[in-house]
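Hi U.,

Before I forget, here's the chain from the pilot set. I'm dumping it here mostly so it's searchable later in email.
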Amino acid sequence: MGSRWAFVGAVGLSLIGCGGGLKLTKVDAAYRKPSNVAVFFAVQNSDDEPVADLLATDFKIYEDGKVVSIDESRQTIVNPEVAAVHQTLLLVDMSASVTESDQVATIVQAAQEFATQIESYQKVAVYAFDGSKEIHEITPFSDSEERASAGLSKLAEFHTKDPSTNLHGAIVQGLEKLDDALDRATVPLRFGTLVVFTDGTDRASRVPLQEMIDAIDASENEVYAIGVGNEIDDATLARIGRSGYIRVGDSAALKGAFAQIGDRIVGYTRRYYLLSYCSPARAGKHSVTVEAHADDTTGQLSYEFDAKGFEPGCDASAPPPFDTSGRTARSRKKLGLTPQGEPVEIEATSEKKK
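Structure:
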């Protein structure tokens, strides 16, 4: 196998749980000479809520049922950014009903705080929509040090091109632009989130409701919705925000609403771990079990690797080059990591929940 990495396929299926309260879901795994083994996975509790901030010592590694010494294996959690990218696109309603009201300053401030909240963990882009056929770029995804929150001042200067509301079309385009950005990423594991803010229903009728619903259903990305006022009905808001939605009666609660959605996005980003270790095996195929411990609960996942040609000299902190052939086989939707079914209504308050 030389220095080439081998990738775990059908033999590397994850085991969910063990009745201990934690769910570990394998996203990808890889191994290579001299004796490196690594796995990228998500940790959630029995309620499917993310479990964040676990340390390397919160995991036990077993090979063929026997514990592998932490000191011997030098197990470590590698920065997951070497294998995965997370991107959020914020889509903001700037139709005439917004820009001609006194809500703009509040919306801009809420959006800036939202971007600041999550851009330490993800790349963020912001687009506005009105009644126009195309959505309007406010600040794009960037590989530079430029922050999306800094570019949001442009939102305050936005001039509505068409006073109507092209909500359906904007969501379809937002998902397309998010996918385009993810497809350009240079790492193999790519996760996207669309957050939609609107104060009303679709008035432009450029795109049928069903076309928007089909685009959301087909998407691998998480989709959240924030609605303000009474114009947009709960059924539509819930249908858009399949990963979670929130309604506020007026702009006074917007900051709290954005903050709660931001908390949810950050939590789901931080549920991912890239655990790497040096295997003591030197030949043959082996079954590996990773066991997580958090707050008196446990969970496991298992996979296999081939140690043919393994030898000393392993550096567990070396970034593992996972398969770069495509993201479809590891999509959150297929892995069960994208919330499906009934939307979750998130309670809104005028202040961020403690």
